[in-house]
Automatic annotation (TrEMBL):
Classification of source organism: Bacteria, Bacillati, Actinomycetota, Actinomycetes, Kitasatosporales
Name the UniProt record assigns to this protein: Acyltransferase
Keywords, comma-separated and alphabetical: Acyltransferase, Repeat, Transferase
InterPro entries: Hexapep, Hexapep_transf_CS, Hexapeptide_acetyltransf, Trimer_LpxA-like_sf
Range of residues in the leader sequence: none
One function term, GO molecular function aspect: acyltransferase activity
EC number per UniProt: 2.3.1.-
Similarity-based family: Belongs to the transferase hexapeptide repeat family.
Amino acid sequence: MPKNWNAFSSRAFTGRLAHRAVQAGWRLAQRAGAVTAEHPGRYRFGSLGHGTKLAFPQGTVFGEPWIHLGAHCIVAEQVTLTAGLMPDLDLGTEPILRIGDGVVLGRGSHVIADTTVTIGSDCYFGPYVYVTSTNHSYDDPHQPIGKQWPRMEPVEIGPGCWIGTGAVILPGARIGRNVVVAAGAVVRGEVPDRSVVAGAPARVVRSWDEENGWQPPLRTPAPAPIPEGVTPEQLLALAGLEELEDGVQPGASA
């Protein structure tokens, strides 16, 4: 018969202490291991903007002198950033991987820049996005594909884009401004500004123009913009009025 677990036993108390110690130690490691311009650790990036942070633990990072990160970027845990085919290469005087201001790279994403990759400002990546400027060729059907010399083409992602979870951006892709790439999409070639692409290979499923707006039309109405001059206090008061109209007291849980 299994023994009853006594929540007040010394064993249970020791377990709780160990759990708290591990959690506290991990939080300390995350804070101490984060990479910033003030605390770059062993990394020597070509540039690392103010307010940018690479969360701990970092993924594979090499070729840092040819990696330029803008200001106020968030690089989540286990993100790989590489410039060049392998570490310790001399890649010349120009940056290979450029990341603009205010970019967010989701957990586990990879940006592989064997030739130039440019990510515009204010782009948001979901988790596990894969961007690469290199792909293996398949010219010789008798040789292992992994042993055939790769082909490289620059990649450009315009400012203001949203790249969904698990998307793959292939060599030669040129994504315009304010583009949504759906989760799991595989993108190659040109993508026009202000469009939505989905699928593998990705294709345009929605686009916007000055005359007709979104085509096909959005299924849900766009949110009303906040009028200019409205203060945070007024917004909180308005939220309280809406709760009262719904029969819910402000601050009460549903």
